[in-house]
Amino acid sequence: MAQPRIIVLSGYGINCEEETALAFELAGGKAEILHINEIIKQPKKLSQYQILAIPGGFSYGDHTGSGNAYAWKLRNHLFDFLIQFIEKDRLVIGICNGFQILVNLGLLPAINNHYGKREAALIHNDGGLYLDRWVDLEIKNNTPWLKGIDKIFLPIAHGEGKFYAPLKIISHLDKKKLIAATYVKGEICYYQSLKPNPNGSLKDIAAITNENKKILGMMPHPERAIFFTQLPHWPYLKEKLLRVNKKIPQFGPGLKIFKNGIKYFL
Amino acid sequence: MAIHRIEIAKTIIDGQALIKKKKIESFGFKGKIRNLWLIDVYTLAKKISPSALQRIAFALTNPITQEYAIDKPVFKKRFDWAIEISLLPGVTDNVGNTAKELIEDLLKEKFNQDEGVYFSSLIIIEGSLLFDEIKKITNQLLNPLIQTAQIKDFLHFKKEGGMTKKTPQVRLSPSKKVITVNLDVSDEELLKIGKEGILDEKGKRRGPLALDLADLKIIRNYFKSLGRWPTDIELESLAQMWSEHCRHRIFNSPIDEVKQGLFKTFIEKATNKIRKKKKKKDICVSVFSDNSGAIEFTNRYLITYKIETHNTPSALDPFGGSITGIVGVNRDTIGFGLGAKPIANFYGFCFPFPKKNQPPLYRDRQLKQKLLSPNQIIEGVIEGVNVGGNCSGIPTSLGFVFFDDCYRGKPLVFVGTIGLIPKRIKNRKSYLKKAQLGDWIVMIGGRVGLDGVHGATFSSEALNEGSPATAVQIGDPIMQKKFSDALVKKARDLNLYHSITDNGAGGLSCSVIEMAKEAGGCEVWLEKVPLKYPGLDPWQIWISESQERMTLAVPKSKWLKLKTIVNEHGVEATIIGHFTRSGHCVVRYQKKIIMDLSLDFLYHGAPQKNLQTKKPKIFIKKQNIPLPKDFNSLLLTMISHLNIGSYQYISQQYDHEVQGNSVIKPLQGKGRVNGDTVVIKPLSNSNKGLGLSFALFPYASQIDCYQMAGLSIDTAIRNLIAAGANPEKIALLDNFCWCDSYNPERLYQLKQAVKGCYDFALKYATPFISGKDSMFNDFNGFNQNGEAIKISVFPTLLISSLGIIEDIEQIVSIDFKFGGDLIYLIGETEEKMGGSQYYQIFHPVNNQLPTLGDNLPTVDAFKNKKIYRVFHKLINEKLIASAIAISKGGLAISLLKSAMAGDKGARISLKEIDNQSSRDDFLLFSESPGRILVSISPANQKRFETILGSLPFKLIGEVFDEKKVFIDNQRGKQIINLDLRKIKSYYQSSFKKWLNLE
Hints:
Oligomer: heterodimer
Low-confidence stretches of chain A: none
Order of helices and strands of chain A: EHEHEHEHEEEEHEHEEHH
Shape of chain B: globular
Mean pLDDT of chain B: 92
Distance between the termini of chain B: 47 Å
Strand content of chain A: 15-25%
Helix content of chain B: 25-40%
Number of strands of chain A: 11
Number of helices of chain B: 30
Distance between the termini of chain A: 6 Å
Structural class of chain B: alpha+beta
Strand content of chain B: 15-25%
Largest sheet of chain B: 7 strands, mixed
Number of helices of chain A: 8
Largest sheet of chain A: 9 strands, mixed
Helix content of chain A: 25-40%
Mean pLDDT of chain A: 96
């Protein structure tokens, strides 16, 4: 199979497109950053790609609710094309603002494949403030994106990351195994004495998928953890390795997620 | 005009409302508010069908968490009070603008210029409060310069069917006339024109020109020779160009025997000399000439850096002032050369101490214009950089906070941006640019309104009652992100423009004239400039500082391509004139020439001021602090002081990891301790790093500004050295925030500081690449008894440093790593305690009578430089496990920081440092420069000591796993015995406690 192609959305305040594209390239894919207006001009272009990535950022400055305005732009212009895309054997990932967009667009969780209906929300962190820190995650379902990962640590940076849905939806998510990852206490929380759930997310939910598990939305940023030197404790680990005469690794844990995406098509 | 109102309320527990409730309770209403709800309100001024309204409301509402009501109140329960806060007409309404865009896209129908969407916040309160109390609450929530409030009690709310529909549309009844200003008037009238502005036809003054008598007389003579009087726009334009803010006249005028002025004679000369001496090793590429300074990073890339201040705007509207500061300095990056990409932000805040129930101060004698409280300033400024930085996708990592009551009148808000740009773009040197004859003058970005009229001229003066409210602005970082993407990520690399600069101070008037100088002249058609709302006068369009705009010189053949790209990013681009070679700046409005000034007069016409200095009488006092009895509690007092304690609260609400370039983050180690240095990795495919740091010693400037500059430069450099930067590849930025700068005594201090900058930069061979000054950080106002009060900041010099780290794998962090590691102190400790944080704790500085001691530590640059070179060798050989440059609070504080960061205990003995010192407390808290505290693996001891050789260093203790810190005094007696957890809780609690954030 040819090198998988990834479309990385940009525009209107999305701002993690470059590092997201870089992560896919490092993972072996061919990533292209496209402004949403470029796709609106040529929506058929979508079908040339295997993976759609909606990166993090501050689309429309979070006004009218994080991800809402960008989701409406997609809904107004590209909804049918997006449905066509996901009905083929394709993968979608939404990271942080991308997750917020997918939820507002109703592509997640899309219970009973009812795409377009808003069923969950990402609301203001319990702490009330934007928060940049690292978290530990436990992987909970078998989405191809997270294959072969049990636990992983990644950074978060968001003001509206508290996962919220009515109880009925939550129990659906549970039953259908749509919860992809939850916040837990692990290496980073122990290292920096942090509480596991950074934002008050219900059921500690950090990531969910749709029913066929091919659409993943996650608040943490794997693209900010693709190099070892991005880890918060790498200076400590470096010294530890140095004392046993070992070199530091090149890559960080986040890369695996992008590799999984690429591997799915190989 | 049909007006509709969509109200949106939460259907789930609202955390934001709980926070608001807590905040209001902290105003002194604890227990008085039973319940509080927040409601989003969108007011639509447009004819819309009921079905379309339903669709709009549905799109604005999240059905999972919210519900809406159209043209009726959404809140149906009983309550006591409703307060609705909305923006004043003309104030940038970002939420309203997004909603408008969303609606236009949804309905496939554009709004016309009279229509609009306006956002406001409705607060519903349940609680038995009197009207006076509600008014008090409202006043605390409101900034009257940008917002207005509507209050209703339940009865009125019910009776009137909810809140009253209001649209803050701007309605101007402009003259559109251009006034000619007769300057053949008395000196008194001339002075008035300079101070209060041009008299308009209604008999009102238009706001400060900040031109003095000498300036106006030169202008009068110039126009006399032309045989006409200036138009209003010409006079306003001259005021912008000649303002202290734009031209830095104090730094450029002759002062005493220094005929060339301070900048040329000291700052620029230092850089030139260093560059000459370094020859091939010179890292400077573009200094002092462009919007940022630039150094060579790799052989293919440059790093740019610029730091600005936004003090006066932040004093009036802390949020708006700081957000436009950070977003504005981003434009100094986008406007560098052909456009650099912003890759990191820097912030530095000098605040007054947060105090409760502090008597208010007023800007006017009538006691109507109240100064915002320290807490309002602090919270607003912090939030402004949060929104500006986070929304722009630029990591905000390095920063500081510094507290003193000298900043009560005006806070200092430093904001900086680091940029990355390839050295060559399509075979052009990216750092050179030149508008060409015939190029279109193109404005891109936001539209022009009244916001920011007279920003440049009013920040050239002290804050007083005449300070214009229109100078306040709110930024729109998303607008800027959109055009930044279009320019730096697209148009730049297609070579679509010859030159670019940002619209900052002075707006179009400064940016166009700046580029006209490159081409040799310009002609502008002001009616082409897109406006936010109709009715602006030509002079207002010309000097408005409305945010988020760039000016470009676009060759005619490239215009369509550029316009297409910019439009595709959702941004407007407009031709507003063309560049000529006339030697003049000609401005037309609806064909008629309304300004015609020679560039020569605009640039060189301003009279030089002959500045004189006078040595100030400083009441230097020797300090007599009693010997402390309880060192444990003393140390806890120090570590929890606002100038030393953690500001994690800020660091973690600023996204410092976007773009994925952080290597040493703002919070280090297990204990997440704020370091004074961060390291970023600008290129994903290169292991080269960039270290960033800073230093400032406002207390020291009360004693000796020359030494103060030396201390700042040494510390800013040493911070980088400790993290692993190459001492040969460090550059500096200077930001002078002075006060009362025509006062000869202040000028004396300035001259001393600048001389210090020159001497120490030369000694360390670290060139200045960029700088900025803000010379009038004074407040002239009144206390609550109506007595005149003047508050001036301490002369504050911020030295910022950037240094290249050859391989990021060699960086060293501040945290102790392993028990058993040896702790060394490199450098010598002196007993000179003047200006130290230790003295400050015992003797809070009084503005009139500095009592910070008389003996500043001295900087021995020659010796220090030797140490830093050898230290770099230690780093290259990977011998250092942790390193921290000793600064505020001295050895004891640095030790605690390394211990907390590593979550390790430590024991040190002062005896090893000096056994003849008069006092243990001096050894603990001395801020002697040139010192680095390190820990190393015992296995490296021999090699470490051999390399250091005869340089001053002492083995003073050991790291251990037990989480306790012990310090023995010179006689071997234990004076500190503290639990690490206790230290940490003091360190981390201070900021939140003071600010009432818990």
